[in-house]
Every structure is written in C-alpha cells, then in structure tokens.
Design brief:
22% of the residues lie in helices and 34% in strands. It has 468 residues and is α+β, with helices and mostly antiparallel strands. It has four domains: 33 residues, no CATH class; 200 residues, Thrombin, subunit H (Beta Barrel), CATH 2.40.10; 87 residues, Pdz3 Domain (Roll), CATH 2.30.42; 96 residues, Pdz3 Domain (Roll). Strands 19, 20, 21, 22, 23, 24 and 25 form a seven-stranded antiparallel sheet that branches. Strand 22 and strand 23 form a beta hairpin. Helix 6 crosses helix 9. The termini are far apart.
C-alpha cells in the first residue's frame, strides 16, 4: 500500500511538470508499475455474491364467463388449470460485504426483498445460507447473518464516507451480470446527490466506476482499502453502465448494521418541525449569497426543535458542522447520527448564525394508531384507517408533522375503492365535521347519514367528494 501511494505521489509530481514542458515518457519503474492490486487484495475477499430465491404467486384467469354452466360443462376440466393460482420461483443476483467476523453481511434491500431463501458465496467459493436481520426499504440497506459461519471469514474495514472528496479514486467490487467477481475503477463524480429518487433518505455518492446489474450491494472502496459506500443504483436507459452510478454512504449503512446487531428496530431522529428548501428567490429576499439550508415553517410543541429553541423563519444550515444543503441532506445527516444523545444544530435567525443542542429522539406514537376497518353502508366501507403520529408518518416515509386519520389499506373492489379512496388519503371532514381520530370515524359510521360530503387530503391537495 505504501508503494502504491508513493507511486501515485511520484506520478502526480511528474504530471505537474508537464505544464511547464512538453510531454515526456515515464522515466522510472514506479511510473510504469502503477496498480490497484494491493487495494483489491485487501478488500475483495470480503465482497460476496448473493443469490436470493422467492416464490411468486400469480392469480389465475378470472372472468364471469368461466362460471357459465354451459362453459363449465364442456370445458370445466380444461379451465381448472387456467383459473388456479400459479406459482413460480424467481431468482435475483446481487453482491454484499462481510462487515464482522461472526458473519454479518451488508447488501441492498432490493437484492433480498421478499426472498424465501438466501445463499451467500464468498470469492473462494465457500457457500453459506443466510437469514435477514434487517431490511430497510427507506435506505435500501439490508443486513444478513450467515448460518454457521467459519471462524476465518474475511472482513471488510468500514471507512469514513464524509472524508471523500470529488475527484478521489475509488474501486467498485461486485458481481455484474453474474459473470463473477469484478473490479472496476473510477473517481468520485459528485457527493450528496439527493435527487436520485431511489430511496426515501438520500445523499448518494456518485461515481463513474462501472456499476451494472449484479453489482448492487457490493463495495465502493477507497484507495486505503476501506469500504466507503454500498453500490446501489445506476442511471441508465439500457440497464448497462453509462458511467453514472450511485452508492449509499457507509456512514448510513453503519447505523443500520448497529441496529441489526443489537436486535433493535431501525429508528431515526425526529425533526419536530416542518420546513422546506431555501430556493433562489427566498435566498435573495433574505440577503443570502446563495440558496442553502431548510427554512422552518412550523414547530411541533414539545418536540426536539421546540426544545432547541427553533422558531418559524429560522434557517437550518448545518448539523455537527456538516453543511445542510436541502431537506434531504438534513434528514440524511440526522439519520446517520441515530437515536440517542444530541447533535449541534446550526441555524440562521435574521441573518445571525446561531447554534443549539438538538436532542436525537425517536418520533413518538402519539396518538396511538388505533386502526379501524370501516363496515356498513358508507363510502369508506372496506378501507382501513389509522391515526397519524410522528412515528407512523416516519414509518410511511411522510413528513412527521402530519396528523389526522389516514387510509392505509383500500382493497380492490371495495366500496372505498369505488368511491375513489387510495392508500395515503387523509380523511379531513365528513359533512363539515372534522375527523381528527379514528374514534370520530367509529362514532360516525355507527349511525351513518344518508348523504355524505367528504373532504380528503391527497399529496397536499384538498379533494371534495359527495355521495348519496
């Protein structure tokens, strides 16, 4: 490793001289023998192949004509095969990284999602069954544990993704297209990408190191041999690498691993306030040199933001000294801290920089969710509603300042579905009466009116429905 770094320094020095003179041929052995082999030897053994198997059941053919007595008489036996549910086994391929000697493996949620059986194969062809400890869809990180692991498992060293800079050299290690373990090289193209749309909590490392299907869950490695990211997604119209790949920073993966190993649920700190990104117009009006940060629009009484002294109009610009660019980066920074203790929150008030201790606490489930499935003759019949709370909103990936009664299940063909309800709709009023808790809904449907005027909030918009 020292030889490699020395060689890189020599190469950098020689490149600097090119600006003052014509191009020259290499004049030393060190300039010719540049290689990433020492880094690969250190990191690659801990990168594994993951084979996930799941059984998918598809419904059989459904049609009223199939129940016709005449058709049943002549084609009954032939139709049985068409109307019965069909099952088939689907296989998916991905990669993973061994992060502890007792067989803990990090991969992507989408690699093992709904898997019935998981097999992990090491680079030396040893094979192990694995169980899922945690699979977190919101970050696309999953944690597995090998069954009966050997005592001499190779283990990756987790680095510091915050130490990365744009232009740093990195390696991507995984199993693209199932061809076997492959190493590709590139640079860090960008940091803190928050508009990728792959996961709910976003702040991706972007790289031009070739990442293809099968690389998901593999390691993004720095030149010191440490894992700095978990390869997750690519931007491509064909499915092949276009030089735009994304990795989840290892600082995020580390918090998911800690929760999985300790046997506790994945919890993220509660913001306790509603806010939005500072846009260019807002930045100009506030006298800011450039748009950055999150402006506070509302503070929940008794929440961590309230305790920290935040007020509407404050602009959050940093967490523990790390810059906050937008709301996504704020959520990411808090999520990497985990629950417990506090963080230093930097904010602007009337243009003056301030700081406050921000308590890292889990969102509370207050009020209790108290689910109710509506029965009887109502426009909501068949749908299941529950009380929104910061905890429920966080589970659903919604702003934690949302409250009310939300539809979480709307079966196909139900009265509620025919009325137009969708999962995620918040029932605000019925016949002008506010619906604040599921208990309000129970009382209303116990003595249903003959006419219904509903007000529903969907994606921040208010919709009105009248049903007789």
């Amino acid at each position: 490793m020292k030889q490699l770094l020395a060689a890189l320094l020599i190469a950098t020095a020689s490149l600097g001289s090119v600006a003052a003179a014509a191009q020259t041929v290499p004049d030393s052995r060190a300039q010719i023998d540049l290689s990433f082999a020492p880094v690969v030897k250190q990191a690659a053994p801990a990168v594994v192949n993951i084979y996930a198997e799941k059984t998918v059941e598809r419904p059989g053919l459904q049609s009223p004509l199939l129940n016709d007595p005449l058709i049943q008489r002549f084609f009954g036996d032939a139709l049985k095969g068409l109307t019965q549910p069909r099952r088939r086994v689907e296989n998916s391929l991905g990669s993973g990284v061994i992060v502890s000697g007792d067989g803990v493996v990090v991969t992507n949620h989408h690699v093992i999602q709904q898997a019935d059986q998981i097999q992990v194969v090491l680079s030396d062809r040893r094979s192990f069954d694995a169980e899922i400890l945690v699979s977190d869809e919101r970050t696309d990180i999953a944690v597995l544990r090998l069954s009966d692991p050997d005592p001499d498992l190779p283990v990756a060293t987790l680095g510091q993704s915050d130490a990365l800079e744009v232009g740093d050299l990195v390696l991507a290690i995984g199993n693209p297209f199932g061809v076997g373990q492959t190493v590709t090289s590139g640079i860090v193209s960008a940091l803190a990408r928050t508009s990728v749309g792959v996961t709910d909590i976003q702040s991706f490392i972007q790289t031009d190191a070739a990442i293809n299907p099968g690389n998901s869950g593999g390691a993004l490695v720095a030149l010191d041999g440490t894992v700095v990211g978990i390869n997750t997604a690519i931007f491509s119209k064909t499915g092949a690498s276009n030089g735009i790949g994304f990795a989840v920073p290892v600082d995020m993966a580390r918090t998911i691993v800690a929760a999985a190993v300790e046997g506790r649920p994945v919890e993220r700190p509660w913001l306790g306030f509603a806010g939005r990104d500072v846009d260019p117009d807002m930045a100009e009006a506030l006298g800011m040199p450039a748009p950055r940060g999150v402006i506070v629009e509302g503070v929940t009484d008794g929440g961590p933001a309230d305790r920290a002294g935040l007020e509407p109009g404050d602009i959050v610009v940093s967490i523990d000294g790390r810059e906050i660019v937008d709301a996504q980066s704020l959520r990411f920074r808090l999520a990497t801290r985990g629950v417990g203790g506090s963080a230093e929150l930097g904010y602007l008030r009337d243009g003056t920089a301030r700081a406050a201790d921000f308590a890292l606490i889990a969102p509370p489930e207050e009020p209790p969710r108290d689910p109710v499935t509506v029965q009887g003759r109502t426009p909501m019949t068949g749908a299941t509603f529950l009380n929104l709370s910061p905890a429920v909103a966080d589970e659903l990936g919604l702003p934690t300042d949302l409250f009310g009664v939300m539809a979480v299940e709307v079966p196909r063909g139900s009265v509620a579905a025919r009325t137009g309800f969708r999962p995620g709709d918040i029932l605000r009023t019925v016949n002008g009466r506010a619906i604040e808790r599921t208990e309000d809904l129970r009382r209303l449907t116990a003595n249903p009116p003959t006419e219904w005027r509903l007000e529903v909030e969907r994606d921040g918009e208010r919709l009105s429905v009248a049903v007789r």
